[in-house]
Amino acid sequence: MAAVKITETSLRDGSQSLIATRLKTSEMLPILEKMDDAGFYSMEVWGGATFDTCIRFLNEDPWERLREIRKRIKKTKLQMLLRGQNLVGYRHYADDMVDLFVKKAIENGIDIIRAFDALNDFRNLETSIKAIKKYKGHCQGCIAYATSDIHTINYYVEKVKELEQMNVDSICIKDMSGILLPYDAYTLVKRLKEATKLPIEMHTHCTSGVAQMMYLKAIEAGADIIDTAISPLSGGTSQPATEVFAQILKGREEDPKLDIEVLGEIADYFKPIMETYKKSGILNSKVMDTEPKTLTYQIPGGMLSNLISQLESQKASSKYEAVLKEVPEVRKDLGYPPLVTPMSQMVGTQALFNVMLGVRYKVIPTEIKNYVRGLYGKPPVAISEEIQKKIIGSEIPITEKPSKFLQPEFEKRKEEIGSLAKSDEDVLMYAMFPEYAKKYLENR
Ligand code: CO
After folding, report:
1. Could you tell me how far CA 195 lies from the centroid of its own chain?
2. Where do the domains of the chain lie?
3. How many Å lie between the centroid of ligand 1 and the Cα of residue 46?
4. For residue range 194-231, what is the model confidence (pLDDT) as tens digits?
5. CATH topology classification for 287-403
6. How far apart are the C-alpha atoms of 242 and 8, rounded to whole Å?
7. 415 CA distance to ligand 1 centroid (A)?
8. Angle at 117 between CA 81 and CA 355, to 5 degrees
């Protein structure tokens, strides 16, 4: 057994899961040097929803945030979450955008890029992986964890082999729903360690209440790295607390050798900050609940809370159980996509429509139609002809890699935004979030 490495997620996933990604750069900067001293292997600080939220809600430049973090983090690797061909946005971007975005992320300070595709269709990761390697980043290939008849251990072994052939440097098992059970994790990691020499990193959320046990069993089976968040930003729909693993593993071969005193100081720093988010209501107590129903319905915690608020706003809370039961049905109809952004939102919305209207697939959002058209990639299981017909009629879905159909777009966007953009970073921001970025750049 080697020492387990720790990826600290407070500044990205912690903030994203508990307070809708609202943590400000000004709240991060004063504690960064201390965090650099704690002994983390890496810190996940960027990507996912942080980019979007900076521009849309915080009036901040996400690139500037990254540079400011990098200035203060000298020893610890900086990590980001990339949604493959979706970058940090919500649609597929053309290959020229992917290449340049990855280049700029690395130039501005990122060391490790964790890339995932919502369908585990790794054709959607080809361009990102190539770019990460080209610009000398550490490329972590990610497998979204889901359960269904086809999501067997062999499925994950095959997926790891695929990623290995694509030249990734490490593997992440991304359990975005917190549904990976401890004994299953043990078996899974054992098999993956036999199948590959690449480091295996585990990612989960505390939503269902099994996360800490899952990590411990995964560590026993040889997992190399785990994702944790400092206590004030841990638990609930976030990751397990960093301090807990520093203590559990202390003095053992797996000891990550974190400075426990420094961890205490970091926690003390964030406590009052999280207190203000509690008072303002941004930290909703609901996200801190343990929700074992997530294990029954295999629904991520974030999706549960979205469904609750959507039903409340339509005065239809009594339909909650019915919608919960409809989600797995829709997921089955659609070929068992993992419920991760953007699939989680899409499946949730379709389930809601099906229940609210009392007729299944009477109303179908464009995103679901595009998914069935093959524009997101290949569903894990082929969609039945009957469902396909219901959703897109006689149209024939594409079977090639979706980005093949996208024209280069960077130069076009650059022209569009003109002198408002002072750098390629500005243009990328605009190309991904035209409306919000334009507003941001105008007011800068
Ligand atoms: Co996560």
Report:
1. 25
2. 5-280, 287-403, 409-443
3. 12
4. 999 999 999 999 999 999 999 999 999 999 999 999 99
5. Cyclin A; domain 1 (1.10.472)
6. 7
7. 36
8. 110
CATH classification (class only), 5-280: alpha beta
pTM (whole model) above 0.90: yes
Name residues whose C-beta falls within 8 Å of residue 160's C-beta, 6 or more positions apart in sequence: 143, 171, 192, 195, 196, 198
**204 CA to centre of ligand 1 in angstroms:** 6
CA of 69 to the centre of ligand 1 (A): 21
CA of 300 to the centre of ligand 1 (A): 10
- Cα–ligand 1 centroid distance for 13 (angstroms): 6
Ligand 1 centroid from CA 386, angstroms: 34
CA of 141 to the centre of ligand 1 (A): 15
Query: pLDDT digit string (tens) for 86-104?
Result: 999 988 999 999 999 999 9
Instruction: Report the separation in Å between the CA atom of 7 and the middle of ligand 1, taken as the mean of its atom positions.
Output: 12
- Stated as kind and residue range, the H or E segment containing 200 is strand 200-203
User: Ligand 1 centre from 227 Cα, in Å?
Assistant: 9
Q: Do the two domains 5-280 and 287-403 of this chain adopt the same fold?
A: no
Concatenating the DSSP letter of every residue in 65-117 gives HHHHHHHH-SSSEEEEEE-GGGTTSSSPPPHHHHHHHHHHHHHTT--EEEE--
Helix (H) or strand (E) holding 226: strand 225-228
Amino acid at 440: Y
pLDDT in tens, 274-333: 999 999 999 988 889 898 888 888 887 667 777 887 898 889 989 989 998 999 999 999
